Amino acid sequence: MPSAQTMKLRSNNYKENIHKQGKVPKSLLKKEENLPVGPILLGVFLFVVVGSALFQILNVASSGQDV
Fold this sequence. Notes:
The chain is mainly α and 67 residues long. The chain has helices at 4-19, 39-63. It is built from 2 helices and no strands. The longest helix has 25 residues, at 39-63. The chain crosses the membrane at residues 35-58. This is Ribosome associated membrane protein RAMP4. Belongs to the RAMP4 family.
């Protein structure tokens, strides 16, 4: 069993921490920078989508059809 002095010290520390609740510096908070999709996969996806859109626009413009 801890001594009375140890219990008093722990109690004082606990009381001090109660008043600091919600005032944690931002450097102590965990940063979540996990992207659900990797940058390479995102680049390939954008290349396919934008490329196919440009290809479709060029096909429509060269054939002279209305959309």
